[in-house]
Amino acid sequence: MERRSFIKRSSISGLALALAPSLAFTKEKDFEYSILELMGKADIELYGKDINLRAQAHDAFVEMKKAAYSDGIDLKVVSSYRNFARQEAIFERKYEQFTEEDGMEPMAAIDKIIEYSTIPGTSRHHWGTDVDIIDGYPKAEGDVLVPSKFGAGGPYENFKKWMDENSKTFDFHLVYTDEPKRKGFKYEPWHYSFAPLSVPMLTEFRRKNILQLLERETFLGSEHFTNGFIRTYIQNNILDINKELL
Predict the structure, then answer these.
(1) What is the reported pTM?
(2) I want to staple 172 with a disulfide (CB 3.0 to 4.6 A). Which of 40, 43, 164, 167 is the partner?
(3) Contact between residue 139 and residue 155 where contact means Cβ atoms under 8 Å apart
């Protein structure tokens, strides 16, 4: 296994000043996962070339990859761990595109962004437990992370069928399902989460004052967040997911 770590975007002390006192000065050992870790602002150990997951998730993924390979499926990671800075860059790039190039109003642009992309600090990809996967064998033009490409007749139809039948054996669960009544992020047939780690991490994240944390962020577009918007985002985008991951 290849061991990697990502450098903090800014120092712990600097970040602590931006957090509420109850969070900034709480000893990290009081929690299994610190708030900086959950928000993608702290070092975590990542394993595997082109995999970049926590050790336990990495090992399970490798076993799943071997099993898929024996059935003619090549599990290829498109995206896994993303730190806060990376998620911030994605959010700000889309915000500028939608507001400046497409002429959308700020909140309309933000609503468009959160159809598929998370607000920095709230992404499951910060945890080193979640991964976007495709089949590396079929040829696909353009953006590979398009739901229709995983459906009937699509290049990743066989991949999706295999994952439906086998992913849970390795503790990987689809996060954003096609359940008709589900709200928040749109259906993502490529996004899987390693439940033994991500479930307790989400439980810990829910104990934090997410509203307060997001109010203190200053990335492009965040000045338009309202309390009502953040509360709805928490309920719909963070918590309205595959119930197996709650």
Answers:
(1) 0.87
(2) 167
(3) yes
